[in-house]
Design brief:
Layout: E1 2-3, E2 13-14, E3 33-36, H1 44-53, E4 57-60, E5 85-88, H2 97-103, H3 113-119, H4 121-133, E6 138-141, H5 148-159, H6 164-178, H7 196-202, H8 207-215, H9 217-224, H10 228-239
Parallel strand pairs: 3-6, 4-5, 4-6
Antiparallel strand pairs: 1-2, 2-3
Helix pairs in contact: 4-10, 5-6, 5-8, 5-9, 6-8
């Protein structure tokens, strides 16, 4: 895993360097797709760092009401965003009563992923399609860069043939990175700050879900109705020379 050191940003990684037998190099390629938390955390210097990495596209997985600067965010000049395409492609509709009743208690866990696929497959499929259509140098993010981004990252890596253990380790890295944050986004409820040992204990029954997601990505894509063309494009983004 390659952490991205973008000023003001936390829990950002390049999805390159993961082991896969589908790539001629034996690993996913760097500089194609990155994962991270809400982009409003970036300072102007952080945006320069992101451009240096090759940032060209942003796929924002958040609901519309979550988007935008909040208290404590940095004031960024409009010109900083020139040439960067930003697409809002939420993976969930929190206004759906069934979704909210079922998933609200477990939104900080991969336990909700299968419910999301079952109840709102068109939204998850749409987010994957947005990534497939984006110009490489794509940042995929949600609020914390942990759960929605973790779900999409697991599917992207699984589709690229990455070993499930490595995908689970990537999810674990995000949980550890955010465990010390009292607030994940302005206006949200404070979260419990956990020690590293507490995080590992919490993940005991969560990492198998991530592992299974990577191992069954093709089956999940079938359930989501992801086209063969989209699957192939997403795979090429991470493994093609």
């Amino acid at each position: 895993m390659t952490a991205l050191e973008w000023d003001g940003y936390l829990n950002a990684r390049d999805l390159g360097g993961f082991p896969t037998a589908l790539s001629s190099t034996g690993k996913t390629h760097f500089g194609r797709i990155a994962r991270g938390p809400r982009r409003e955390r970036l300072t102007e210097t952080g945006w320069e760092h992101a451009r240096g990495w090759g940032l060209a596209s942003i796929i924002d997985l958040r609901c519309a009401h979550e988007v935008g600067p909040g208290e404590g965010d940095h004031a960024i000049a409009d010109h900083v965003f020139n040439g960067i395409t930003i697409i809002n492609a939420p993976t969930e509709d929190q206004s759906d009563p069934e979704f909210w009743e079922t998933c609200a208690p477990i939104l900080d866990s991969p336990e909700y992923w299968a419910h999301n696929w079952r109840m709102q497959p068109q939204l998850v499929r749409g987010a994957l399609g947005a990534i497939a259509s984006s110009t490489p140098g794509t940042l995929v993010h949600c609020s914390a860069g942990r759960d929605r981004t973790g779900m999409i990252s697991a599917l992207l890596l699984g589709n690229a043939g990455v070993e499930p253990d490595a995908v689970a380790a990537d999810y674990a890295a995000s949980v550890h990175a955010m465990a010390g944050m009292e607030s994940l986004a302005p206006g949200t409820e404070p979260q419990e700050i956990r020690s590293s040992a507490e995080v590992d204990d919490w993940m005991t029954d969560k990492l198998p879900i991530v592992h299974d997601t990577a191992a069954r990505t093709h089956e999940i894509f079938d359930d989501l109705g992801v086209s063969i063309a989209t699957r192939s494009t997403l795979r090429r983004l991470l493994i093609a020379e």
